[in-house]
Amino acid sequence: MFDSVVGRIIKMIHMQLDNNRETCSAMLLVGGLSQSKYLQERIKQEFQHRVKNISVPLQPIAAISRGAALYGLSMINSAPNFENSHKFVINERVLKYTYGISHVWKKGDPIERRRSNGRIHKFLSLAQRGTVVEINQEFTSMIFPISSTQSAVDFLIYFTAKYSAQYIDEDGMEKLESLLISLPDVHYGRRPILFGLTFGRMEITASAKNQLNGQNYQTTLKFDI
């Protein structure tokens, strides 16, 4: 009766371990189903050769609710101007995806990938999967408009489970959001724009700052980072 669910759990654990570049030293089974002796036995049989320590903590059901409560309290306690602030429970994370933006063809790119408008939309990686990121750490890149007459730039933000990618139409590439900014200073040279992605506690913030006039644009993206 449980095999269909247990099978999916084991498959998901395999995927997590396969995606991890480092050796997993311990596996903790939590939640209501983790109390199942059958599930515990199946997981230990399947992964005992890959993970040295597989265990079920005391009160595995409470582990989830306690963790959620501690996480919420730590967010309050780590807020600015909070008296007796404690260190945030999660102060860094490992990115599950590679994040970046679309940018156009450069000399040397394959001509056959050009679209009807004559452009090739490549993927400019800003933050790579597997990178250890601190809370509110920002990844930036200096971007320039295609032409001196361009009056706006639409930054298309993409993500992929791959560690590296070249084009936005590759398998597994998905669009996350876009950020449209105005460029009023037409004919003012190259007009550099500092584009950045900031990885917060539970959100990603995309920002673009016009280095010529100081105009700053940003949008917040809710996403499983």
Distance between the termini: 34 Å
CATH architecture of the largest domain: Sandwich
Order of helices and strands: HEHEHEEEEEEEEEE
Stretches where pLDDT is under 50 for at least 5 consecutive residues are none
Under CATH, the homologous superfamily of the largest domain reads Substrate Binding Domain Of DNAk, Chain A, domain 1
Beta content:
25-35%
Tally of separate domains: 2
Q: Main beta sheet, described? A: 4 strands, antiparallel
Structural class: alpha+beta
Helix content class = 10-25%
Overall mean pLDDT stands at 84
Return the CATH topology of the largest domain.
Substrate Binding Domain Of DNAk, Chain A, domain 1
**β-strand number:** 12
Read across the widest sheet, the strand sequence of neighbours is: 5-4-8-9
Overall form: elongated
Please compute the radius of gyration using only Cα atoms. 23 Å
Helix segment tally: 3
Query: Which CATH class of the largest domain is shown?
Result: Mainly Beta
